[in-house]
Amino acid sequence: MIKSPVEFFRTLPKKVCPECGQTVKEQAESYLMECDRCLSKKME
C-alpha cells in the first residue's frame, strides 16, 4: 500500500551528523549534513 506524503515525511529518521553522531536540527531549505558545532570547527 502506498503511504500518503505526510505519513512518509513524518516517519523519516532524524538526520545525524556524520562527524560526531549528534542529531542535526533540521531547517527548511537546508541541505547541510553536519551539525552546527562541526561546521563551526571547519570554519576556523
The parts where pLDDT drops under 50 for at least 5 residues are none
Structural class: mainly alpha
Number of alpha- plus pi-helical segments:
2
Which outline best applies? elongated
Q: Distance between termini?
A: 49 Å
Number of strands: 0
Strand composition percent: under 5%
**Biggest sheet descriptor:** none
Let me know the average pLDDT.
85
Give the radius of gyration. Answer: 14 Å
Tell me the helix content. Answer: 25-40%
Helix-strand string? HH
Please give a structural write-up:
The chain has 44 residues and is an all-alpha fold. The chain has a domain at 14-43. Helices cover 32% and strands 0% of the residues. The protein is built from two helices and no strands. The chain has helices spanning 5-10, 36-43. The longest helix has 8 residues, at 36-43. This is YhfH-like protein. InterPro entries: YhfH-like (IPR025432).
What's the topology here?
Elements: H1 5-10, H2 36-43
Write out key terms for the chains shown.
44 residues; YhfH-like protein; mainly alpha; 2 helices; YhfH-like
Offer a quick outline of the entry.
With 44 residues, this protein is mainly α. The protein has helices spanning 5-10, 36-43.
